UniProtKB/TrEMBL annotation, chains A, B, C:
Residues 360-435 form the UCP01524 winged helix-turn-helix domain. Residues 71-161 form the DUF2172 domain. This is DUF4910 domain-containing protein. InterPro entries: DUF2172, DUF4910, UCP015244, UCP01524_HTH, WH-like_DNA-bd_sf. Residues 22-358 form the DUF4910 domain. It holds the Pfam family DUF4910. Signal peptide: none annotated.
Amino acid sequence: MNGELTVGERLVRGNPGEQIFAFAAKIYPICRSITGDGVRKTLRAIRSHIDLDIHEVPTGTEVFDWIVPPEWNVREAYIRDQRGRKIVDFADSNLHVMSYSIPVHRWISLAELKQHVYTLPDQPDLTPYRTSYYAENWAFCMPHRLLESLSDGRYEVVIDSDLSSGSLSYGEYLHKGETDEEFLLSAHICHPSLANDNCSGVALLTHLAKCMTGLRTRYSYRFLFAPGTIGAITWLARNEGQVKHIKHGLVVSMVGDGGGPTYKKSRRGDAEIDRVLAHILRHCGLKPTILDFSPYGYDERQYCSPGFNLPVGLFQRSQFGQIPQYHTSADNLDLIAPDHLAKSYRIIAETIDILENDIVYRNTNPKCEPQLGRRGLYGAIGGDKDAAGANMAMLWILNLSDGRNSLFDIAERADLPFALVRKTAQLLHRNGLLARRDDEKPRTT
Amino acid sequence: MNGELTVGERLVRGNPGEQIFAFAAKIYPICRSITGDGVRKTLRAIRSHIDLDIHEVPTGTEVFDWIVPPEWNVREAYIRDQRGRKIVDFADSNLHVMSYSIPVHRWISLAELKQHVYTLPDQPDLTPYRTSYYAENWAFCMPHRLLESLSDGRYEVVIDSDLSSGSLSYGEYLHKGETDEEFLLSAHICHPSLANDNCSGVALLTHLAKCMTGLRTRYSYRFLFAPGTIGAITWLARNEGQVKHIKHGLVVSMVGDGGGPTYKKSRRGDAEIDRVLAHILRHCGLKPTILDFSPYGYDERQYCSPGFNLPVGLFQRSQFGQIPQYHTSADNLDLIAPDHLAKSYRIIAETIDILENDIVYRNTNPKCEPQLGRRGLYGAIGGDKDAAGANMAMLWILNLSDGRNSLFDIAERADLPFALVRKTAQLLHRNGLLARRDDEKPRTT
Amino acid sequence: MNGELTVGERLVRGNPGEQIFAFAAKIYPICRSITGDGVRKTLRAIRSHIDLDIHEVPTGTEVFDWIVPPEWNVREAYIRDQRGRKIVDFADSNLHVMSYSIPVHRWISLAELKQHVYTLPDQPDLTPYRTSYYAENWAFCMPHRLLESLSDGRYEVVIDSDLSSGSLSYGEYLHKGETDEEFLLSAHICHPSLANDNCSGVALLTHLAKCMTGLRTRYSYRFLFAPGTIGAITWLARNEGQVKHIKHGLVVSMVGDGGGPTYKKSRRGDAEIDRVLAHILRHCGLKPTILDFSPYGYDERQYCSPGFNLPVGLFQRSQFGQIPQYHTSADNLDLIAPDHLAKSYRIIAETIDILENDIVYRNTNPKCEPQLGRRGLYGAIGGDKDAAGANMAMLWILNLSDGRNSLFDIAERADLPFALVRKTAQLLHRNGLLARRDDEKPRTT
């Protein structure tokens, strides 16, 4: 173990920001929804990096209180005016069509058209993102300024969509560790051309899974790429007996912008994942926001429903709904950047590093301090006002390693970065001043 | 239950502020003390509204460490100067005579008179309120300016009072609910012409008891109108075996001014009444003060003595002793107003509403969220930034209804008004998404 | 007990500040280290006041992970220039020689000399205090300005020191109380001419032990005067079976300056000593600092090591390392003053007073308040706005004396000074309103 890199250190080698950005950019143009060929295309893109299992769940399958809906696909869609000019075209941006719009082909008045158009009057140049999965309807989305510019007259509306029996697709990848205990990492894949929400999360987790290949880990890591809500519900319904293995979990979304970071705690509020993320964000050099659990958000809603109550939190940069680009055409590739993606990635790698290395040591000389100086571990010249700082991690670890505190517990009480505590503990362990708790299996990298 | 008014909603119908004020004004002129005909007259006035039981406890009765004192009545009292002019007259204000003054009829010097006069030098135009229940003495109270204006000479002092064997009077009214569990509402009736302290409290509770007549409630409501300290002690001594039924309680005093509101917690500090009042006051739109228990105040001192330790708090607008009018002649009808009384009344009605309706539901679909949209319960158009707010109560209730959280627990954790949580829960219940806990008897209005 | 002085009151009689200062000044010039004749001379000076047991532990004795080092003594030491002028001389200040310097007598260049000189560039007129107990080395300490003024050339360096087999000396004094439960008071005696750190602590505890002689106390008081770290470790190793008697403890250092006061909690964080010091400091009229435990500081590091975890905190005025004079020649007799020493002494006397008198009483009339007025215990005239304050201690004691709260618990919840609570409880006890808990042995003064 001495001198070897930890799991977390191995994960961050290379140039993760550029690679994550490139993959996000690659899947950005695809038209996704909660079902359909865009989802499959996205999953196949992920599979080009990792050995992803792609599951297809037929329309009509009952999953708890829900039913897998018909599959939706769009061939083309546009609005044309009387002079034949296309006002908006699905080919330009898949945001122009409300997701799950039923087929339509009619000439209608401007007044009627306005009944089927969503805009953002406060952000008149942006196109909103809208869905109507479970209420049969059709609509277009466009900039408010464009709608305002339309003159009276009749318009041809065409949505050549398909809502028919098919299946819901999701992808799953399991990195097997030394134990059955799992860390769940989940990203929704149902949003169309929105870069931050959630091409960023899909790309980050794909890269993480890829980097994890071949690493020895204590935990098993389950990566889930599924449509929001119905996808997580479907997965939970099909894996009800397995969720007991989930010891930690993160929903990952909107991780490419420069805001936050933001962590929303699990419903439990004091799960280890909650404590670890709070610790990392406190030491991350940015201005983090730690939120208590609330039942609104992403798929942590399902993982934290009372019948499961899993220790799964939500990691984001900016908080959903809190930036003006949210759910608009401004959530494009300009909103995300390799540096931000890399920072988000490092935070998750550090989370993994803490959980993998959170050992309980026992001080082998619990009565009084051991003589560190004799072992060359301590500033040799006493009386120096400044020597104290450098030795604090050693003193804290020795003082608290009474068999009840893990390294993470110590890092929290001492308010020291975990990595410093881990490295110092390894030094003390090598010097025989710490022993592993007998009843604990070794956790190695 | 659907569409029916709750207990709290029924209680606030009509024009409570005006009615409470009118009754406070009616009993304001009466000379009350801890015993005597003024107390009886006040109790009879209450009995003209509700079916009050009036109890008489003879002088000399032992009540715990105390003995019911002689009964005190005053026929007339005044100070007259040598020219026959009355300086102060009990007929003008019963505050002019210290309560429980022994009889006196003498001519005395100004110097000696000053030994028997209380004034407020810092508030020279006001007459203070003073008592000497258990130390034999006599005194007058008057404005400091008036005392200063008196010239040397001799003065005739007359207090034609009576301190003799009689009884202590108190009134009690029980509204019977579906259970034996009681909510105690207690107001002291021993203060003479002080409008806020406590004609306001007596009138508010009288109106509440009147409005409660005929309502079906879960709890039984015990209204106690008794002299401060000795009255509460007497009641506790005579009802020692019954107090175990008291699940919640409020002492109500000084509820007619525009200050506060103020809530002083019970000795327990975390009783349900403490949590409920804190919740209501936090959402009441005024600037509330929540005080920890202290053993100084009104009759919560007795209810919260260590041998009883009942969950009884103190509800007031301004805190006792914290306004300049406190215990002076300025605590008159100008200090109280129908609007303030109505607001105080509504706060107590809301307290009752929460306690009556604090049900524990169970989410019937605990695994993942139920599909609200299918039931028409959810904003049908996804992606709208603002739809979230309206649905939060539903999501919180479903998430927390795991059998351990009551509606009030949910309102607290979600920081939502209880009424919204209650109404939303009823909606979910009607839709089959919530069930009552099996072991719980229904609580209806 | 009535009218008798408490232990704490007896301890503060006389003129403690002047006496403590005089003794601190007497031992200030002695050259101390962790061993040697200076330590012995200091212990003999203490023994001139109290019946101190002086222990000698031979060089080479194993104490837990440590070994008692050789004994160090210095006959003379200086630096002389080519013209025979002494640059620094141990005879002027024992700070000029790094503690535990090995013998040396050589002529060396200025460049080489600088390798063996410590200065404080930011405090150029002060001489630092430095030690090298366990790494063989030699060095001088001097003002930076003096070092800068030295011209090139050769210098004669002489340290006529002795590092040879001998012993480590420490002193111990036990004041026997009525019980075996101990209060440990510990001061380090290893610092040379530093007045605050720790002539002040040694002198304070010597005075305290002297004043305690002949007093009847509940606790036994163990005073320990030992070199820092190795002395505390040696004492713990030789008294391992006895430490279970230690119920409270304080390390006392730097108690003569005008800063703070500062209290660093024991590792437990909620020991009675931690709560009591926090209470006293909150009411002491100065601006206290309460620190959580950390494993850096004085001998609380050893007492609070995980194998002992004793309830021992650290009491100081200014916090170590936080004042510019710390570990420099400016920590001289000008830094400490009789008034500050007296204040520190009173704080420790008050600590003892609380612990000696922290009785659990039981209210003999737990149901409702007892009638205090009848017993002359209560303001006889009701209605006075200001009477409340004076009676609060009585009301709090009666309300909380349910057998679960000690007087100190009551003082904390009521936020009243302990002395007021104690005196008031004695008054109530004399009046039969409080009884001692049956299962408790009397604690008398």
